[in-house]
Amino acid sequence: MRVLVVGNGAREHAIAWKLKTQNPGLVLFIAPGNAGTEQIGENVPIPQTDLARFARDNRVDFTIVGPEDALAAGIVDQFSASGYPIFGPTAQAARIEKSKGFAKRLMRKHNIPTATALITRSPTAALDYIGSPLKCSMPIVLKPDGLTGGKGVQIIEDRQVAQAAAAAMIESSKGREILIEECLRGTEVSVFAFVHGQQVSQLFAACDYKQLNGKMTGGMGAYSPPSIWTSQLAQDVREKIMEPVARALAAQRTPFVGVLYAGLMLTNEGPKVLEFNARFGDPEAQVMLPRLKSDLLRTM
Ligand code: AMP
Ligand code: GLY
Question: Which end of the chain is least crowded, N or C, by CB within 10 Å?
Answer without folding.
Answer: N
